[in-house]
């Protein structure tokens, strides 16, 4: 089985990045770029056996701030705008 890394979360892999807890009634969301990805193992561990499900919504080079960004090579990065929306 391939490990789910939840990089570049999109509609087609959104469910793979949802981590339910039995009986949980609340959902925490981890949103951001590679910083969010780096924190995901710790957040996932912290919420284990809690009343929170976890939904990860991360995308490389796409910060949580609602600003237009360019890709690492300086090219347009409209996928980030769509992800933020």
Helix/strand-derived category reads alpha+beta
Strand order of the largest sheet: 1-3-2
Q: Which percent bin holds the helix content?
A: 10-25%
Per DSSP, what share of the residues sits in E-state strands of 2 or more residues? 15-25%
Number of helices: 2
Outline the structure in words.
The protein is elongated. The model has no long low-confidence stretch (mean pLDDT 88). The longest helix has 14 residues, at 34-47. It is built from 2 helices and 3 strands; from the N terminus they run ββαβα. By secondary structure, the protein is an alpha+beta fold. The chain has a 3-stranded mixed sheet. It starts with 17 loop residues before the first strand and ends with a helix. Helix 1 links the parallel strand 2 (26-32) and strand 3 (52-58).
Give the SSE layout.
Elements: E1 18-19, E2 26-32, H1 34-47, E3 52-58, H2 78-84
Parallel strand pairs: 2-3
Antiparallel strand pairs: 1-3
Structure, briefly:
The protein has two helices and three strands. It is an alpha+beta fold and 85 residues long.
List the main descriptive attributes of the protein structure presented here.
85 residues; alpha+beta; 19% strand; elongated
């Amino acid at each position: 089985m391939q490990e789910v890394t939840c990089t570049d979360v999109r509609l087609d892999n959104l469910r793979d990045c949802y981590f339910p807890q039995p009986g949980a009634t609340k959902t925490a969301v981890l949103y951001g770029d590679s910083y969010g990805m780096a924190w995901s193992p710790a957040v996932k561990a912290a919420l284990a056996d809690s009343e929170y499900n976890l939904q990860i919504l991360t995308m490389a080079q796409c910060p949580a701030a609602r600003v237009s960004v360019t890709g690492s090579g300086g090219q347009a990065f409209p996928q980030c705008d769509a992800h933020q929306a």
